[in-house]
Amino acid sequence: MTKKLIKVMDTSFRDGFQSVYGARVFVEDFLPALQSAVAAGINHFEVAGGARFQSPIFYCNENAFETMDKIRAAAGPDVNLQSLARGVNVVGLDSQPRDIINLHAKMFKKHGVTTVRNFDALNDVNNLIYSGQCIKDNGLKHEVTITMMELPIGCTGAHDVEFYVKVLKNILDAEIPFDSIAFKDASGTSAPRKVYETIKRTREILGTGAHIRFHSHETAGTALAAYLAALDGGADGIDLSMKPVSGGTAQPDIVSMWHALKGTEYDLGIDIEKILETEEIFKDCMKDYFLPPEALAVNPMIIQSPLPGGALTANTQMLRDNGIMDKYPEIVSAMKEVVEKGGFGTSVTPVSQFYFQQAFNNVMFGKWKKIAEGYGKMVLGYFGKTPCEPDSEVVKLASEQLKLQPTTECVVDINDKDPNKGIEAARKMLNDAGLVETEENIFIAAACKEKGILFLEGKGTIGVRKNEQKSETSESSANGYTVTVNGKKYAVALEGEKATVNGKLYDFSIKSGIEAKQSVGGEGTPVKAALPGTVLKVLVEEGDTIQEGDVLAVVEAMKMETEIKSPVGGTVQSVEIEVGGHVQTGQVLVTVV
User: Fold this and answer.
1) How many CB atoms lie under 10 A from the CB of residue 33?
2) How many CB atoms lie within 10 A of CB 472?
3) Which domains does the chain have, with CATH numbers?
4) Could you give the CA distance from residue 53 to residue 108 in angstroms, rounded to a whole number?
5) What's the whole-number mean pLDDT along residues 34-42?
6) Residues with Cβ within 8 Å of residue 252, at least 6 apart in sequence
7) How many CA atoms does the CB half-sphere of 490 hold within 13 Å?
8) What is the mean pLDDT of residues 290-304?
9) 49: region left, alpha or beta (phi > 0 left; psi from -120 to 50 alpha)
10) How high is the pLDDT of residue 520?
11) Less crowded by CB within 10 Å, the N or C end of the chain?
């Protein structure tokens, strides 16, 4: 019989990296595997956007646009290179005004992207109208996307077949131009039967000419079954990955799917022997990278607390960085209540990060004592309309703590009026830092904010975990070593449980805690870090007169900005931190007398 050819997009080099390594991968390390995959006959890859824009800048000290150029050069001119965009959020956690949304499409086209998969985590179609138009206007193919998940056990509301059909009809009614449509289940929790019915109804509505794709993760252990259901429902394409970034928190493996389709009416159209050879090359490329044990695990808890594969390892990596990985089980358990009271936005970035941040705060500070900014803005309407109404008490707390009123105004209209957003605001950030004003730099400043500016200033840091951190060169010096990693030199001195890197002290003996601390001594009041993180802003200098409660610095941890406030009034005696430095819980930041 004639088999239906199923089109495969290989997600290894974007979603695979995000799901397994938190997207912290140096571009040069994986190019041989990409070239091998192209030689094996794969002609469609997801390689950019999502976390693979911010993570190169935040953790690899690499310019994301330059990595995209290298990927295009390695893949050749004819391969379909796809990126992931988050509607009005494009590639960040914060939403953007119209000028940045358009600049995103322009820059991604310039740097080698062919297709943009564009989704909104709330399935608010208003957030897809302008972003989708910009994608098409800039010469890219637009894959409009509906996001899926299963509700936590015992919850009722959105995320059934009728809800997804309604979102599809809203897309059609809005006349959003698109070349294909995808259903994206980032947590891998959608029941296979629901997937089948959703795709079947979509095919009936769109007809035979539409290209329909399905995307899921193996986190809950049901992705292969869901993929088979999607194909039976009429899907034309599916997303698959390769070892070592397949299975578990990532997509099903190409080889596993090929095997599952034996004896069926479907064919992936691949040379399985060449794919097996490529997987061996890929595994060799990644052999030095630390593989988090949770990355390749099937975790039934995710059905109760839908945490996407991409957010799962990204957050566990940050928990490890900050020495609080022991809190992970509590945080995941706390997610159910956060999802339920948040209005059932799909657990996919940025909403999945908002859920995790709020669950993190509920565990660390007590339930609903500290509303995470992203979560609070979401329930207040600043990211669009949630599928169901959020809990009224949580909305009230968010309004009080963030000092914002609920809104139903269109997100891009809100952002267009915000003087701290947009191209002009990004230009000011660049000018204030004395940086060159290119369109690429403008977008980096807008999407990555202070951490983007630090990177452009040459103050970027490396947070890539490898099993053996082998340096290219290691030179002995009077105070320690000069270590060169990826062409960049670091002066390193070790003493007991402390290390000095390029003049910054890291004390690994400090234990993590929850509350901000102060200790009063004869020489003044040291103000200490509440949580570990990276210093984004230092707002005082030695000699400044301050009042109790004044903000001294801003520290970023778990993708949240935390203000460090002075517990006393007085004069700033010393400032022990600088922008870009990493601090540990309990570390002295400022001393006040």
Assistant:
1) 24
2) 11
3) 473-507 (no CATH), 525-592 (2.40.50.100)
4) 11
5) 97
6) 216, 218, 223, 224, 227, 240, 241, 246
7) 18
8) 84
9) left
10) 43
11) N
Q: Residue 9's beta-bridge partner residues? A: 239
Helix, strand, coil fractions of the chain, as percent rounded to 5:
40, 20, 40
Please state, in angstroms and rounded to a whole number, the distance separating the CA atoms of residues 431 and 435. 6
H/E segment holding residue 592: strand 588-592
Q: Where residue 557 falls among pLDDT bands split at 50, 70, 90?
A: low
In terms of Cβ atoms closer than 10 Å to its own Cβ (0-12, 13-18, 19+), residue 277 is: middle
How many whole angstroms separate alpha carbon 290 and alpha carbon 308?
A: 20
Tokens standing for 127? 């957030």
What's the CA gap between 203 and 194, in Å, rounded? 14
Terminal-to-terminal C-alpha distance of the chain: 84
Q: Which residues pair with 266 in a beta bridge?
A: 4
Closest CA to 95 of 307, 495, 410, 497: 410
Which CA distances in Å does 297 have to 16, 24, 90?
A: 14, 19, 30
Q: Which residues pair with 534 in a beta bridge?
A: 556, 582
Gap between the Cα atoms of 398 and 405, Å rounded:
9
Q: Which two tokens stand for residue 196?
A: 């089948």
Question: Which residue is it, tokens 């390594």?
Answer: 21
Per the CB < 8 A criterion, the answer to whether 531 and 554 are in contact is: no
Q: What is the pLDDT of residue 483?
A: 57
Residue 417 CB contacts under 8 Å (≥ 6 apart), including other chains: none
Collapsed DSSP state (helix, strand, coil) of residue 504? strand
Size of the chain in residues? 593
Residue in 60, 43, 44 with CA at minimum distance from that of residue 52: 60
